[in-house]
Amino acid sequence: MNLFNVYPLYDITPVKAQGSKLWDKNGVEYLDLYGGHAVISIGHSHPHYVQKLTEQLSNLGFYSNSVNIPIQQELATKLGELSGYDDYELFLCNSGAEANENALKLASFFNGRKKVIAFSKAFHGRTAGAVAVTDNKAIIAPINYDEHVTFLPFNDVEALKENITEEVCAVIVEGIQGVGGINVCSDEFLKTAREMCDKTGAILILDSVQCGYGRSGKFFSHDFSGIRPDIMTTAKGMGNGFPIGGVLISPKFKAKFGMLGTTFGGNHLACAAAVAVLDVMKEENLMENAIKKGEYLFENLKQIEGIKELRGRGLMIGIEFEKPVDTIRDTLLFEHKIFCGYAGKNTLRLLPSLALGQAECDRFLEALAQTVKA
Ligand code: PLP
Q1: CB–CB of 274/244 below 8 Å?
Q2: CB 358 within 8 A of CB 322
Q3: Which atom in ligand 1 lies closest to the alpha carbon of residue 130?
Q4: SS3 assignment for the chain
Q5: At 103, phi and psi to the nearest 5?
Q6: Does ligand 1 come within 6 angstroms of the Cβ of 235?
Q7: What φ, ψ does residue 324 adopt, rounded to 5°?
Q8: Is 129 near ligand 1, meaning CB less than 6 Å away?
Q9: Looking at the domain that runs over 14-46+285-373, which CATH code has it been given?
Q10: Start-end ranges of CATH 3.40.640.10 in the chain?
Q11: Which positions carry the signal peptide feature in this UniProt record (predicted)?
Q12: Residue 76, Cα to own-chain centre: how many angstroms?
């Protein structure tokens, strides 16, 4: 059997990874500034992470959501402490799309409504519900799941005020749009969204799957605005490569047996990975590192000619050029051995490990300056 061929692949086979570096089967070293779409939060193969996962391996067969799994509560407690949302509750699942699906479900259970407000260029995942609130018609399934969704221009305070009514179930927004181009939600927009949701009884969902987990320099990127959402969704960096997703649910929601469910969500290995991530983030002050290295990159990127706009926060950085970035990206990868991503045709997207080092920043800045000049 062959794999269903939906991903264009580079002819590179990584066999080893450490920190922000990868090595392919020929021993060539690469700098990883993309981390598999923001997944690598604490760095590849961190010893604490490897140890935690290894310790849990023998527990796999005991897994079921109908028995007590202490590491789930350890995860919830540590997540509450580090994020500052210790009064919220945690539902564990397996991916970002699944987290958003459950968030939308919870919102509709809460207020019995169906209409959802989402935003231009939003990306929330590839399940039917998550696709419905994603502004990319190329991935919409033929079934019309989106009949209840209204897309508004991103960051448009007036449009939000005009469209939010007492019929709206939820407003779902990324604090910083990832796939949509590293667009940062303004404080004014987030505060208005909080206010209008309170006024109309709509649920405010912050999709923090890509921009959360310390990437912006705060635990959640919306923390810069001081608002507290009703629901936050996470995945990606939560497990540093191990699949796990989570829904953080405010105290206004009351859990009922059978309300949500999952077979694999909260399994031992996923929880061990997520606990290790939180331990390392705390121990190594990775959010502070994300702010420092982000500021350093932003300052120095400003000196490079040909960049149209820099967007983002911390270590979630969009570098927009006047022209498509495919050649720049290929040169960085094939000549300078640096992995970067893209968001839209003209924007390079950096989502490195939050433990990115100074020398690694300099290696990228030098390589980019050379590439752009050539
Ligand atoms: N939400 C956001 C903001 C994302 O960037 C993504 C994935 O890129 C998702 C949700 C979906 O996550 P997953 O691919 O884990 O389902």
Answers
A1: yes
A2: no
A3: 10
A4: CCCCCCCCCCCCCEEEEEECEEEECCCCEEEECCHHHHCCCCCECCHHHHHHHHHHHHHHHHCCCCCCCHHHHHHHHHHHHHHCCCCCEEEEECCHHHHHHHHHHHHHHHHCCCEEEEECCCCCCCCHHHHHCCCCHHHCCCCCHHHHEEEECCCCHHHHHHHCCCCEEEEEEECEECCCCCEECCHHHHHHHHHHHHHHCCEEEEECCCCCCCCCCCCCHHHHHCCCCCEEEECHHHCCCCCCEEEEECCCCCCCCCCCCCCCCCCHHHHHHHHHHHHHHHHCCHHHHHHHHHHHHHHHHCCCCCEEEEEEECCEEEEEECCCCHHHHHHHHHCCCEECEECCCCEEEECCCCCCCHHHHHHHHHHHHHHHHC
A5: -65, -45
A6: yes
A7: -55, 145
A8: no
A9: 3.90.1150.10
A10: 48-283
A11: none
A12: 18
Question: What pLDDT shows up at residue 232?
Answer: 98
What residue has token string 């694999």? 264
Under CATH, what is the fold of the domain 48-283? Aspartate Aminotransferase; domain 2 (3.40.640)
- Pick from 214, 242, 238, 263: which is nearest to 56 by CA? 242
Model-level pTM greater than 0.90?
yes
Tokens of 319: 């570098």
**35-52 pLDDT tens trace:** 999 999 999 999 999 999
Residue with tokens 């940062």: 184
Nearest CA to ligand 1 atom 1: 124
- Ligand 1 atom with least separation from CA of 178: 5
Locate CATH 3.90.1150.10 in the chain: 14-46+285-373
Residue pLDDT, tens place only, 118-166: 999 999 998 888 888 888 766 655 556 678 999 999 999 999 999 999 9
Q: How far apart are CA 350 and CA 333, in angstroms?
A: 13
